């Protein structure tokens, strides 16, 4: 009995798209910037801005992960 290769499925092709990994990389880099700013200075305004940047980066990275999972 011959099995079909699992790496040729539509979900695997979608999961290997370069655009998804670029999106995740951008999200990770934005998150790293948010974490850096969080510990860079002791200002209430900078702290709020850094949390917002971290949240945006996390959302972008999770969006890429969910694109892979939805494939």
Task: Please mark out the parts with pLDDT under 50 across 5 or more consecutive residues, or reply none.
Answer: none
Q: What is the arithmetic mean of pLDDT?
A: 86
Query: What is the string of SSEs from the N terminus onward?
Result: HHH
Which structural class best describes the helix and strand composition? mainly alpha
- Major sheet characteristics: none
Estimate the global geometry from the Cα principal axes.
Answer: rod-shaped
- The end-to-end distance, rounded to whole angstroms, is 27 Å
Radius of gyration: 18 Å
Count of alpha and pi helical runs: 3
What fraction, in percent, of the residue positions are helical?
over 70%
What does this protein structure show overall?
This protein is mainly alpha-helical and 71 residues long. The protein has one domain (10-69). 77% of the residues lie in helices and 0% in strands. It has helices at residues 10-15, 18-40, 44-69. The two termini are 27 Å apart.
């Amino acid at each position: 009995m011959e099995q079909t290769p699992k790496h040729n499925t539509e979900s695997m092709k979608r999961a290997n798209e370069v655009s998804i990994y670029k999106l995740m990389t951008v999200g990770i880099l934005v998150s790293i910037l948010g974490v850096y700013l969080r510990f860079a200075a002791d200002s209430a305004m900078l702290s709020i801005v850094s949390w917002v940047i971290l949240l945006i980066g996390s959302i972008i990275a999770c969006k890429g992960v969910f694109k892979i999972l939805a494939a």
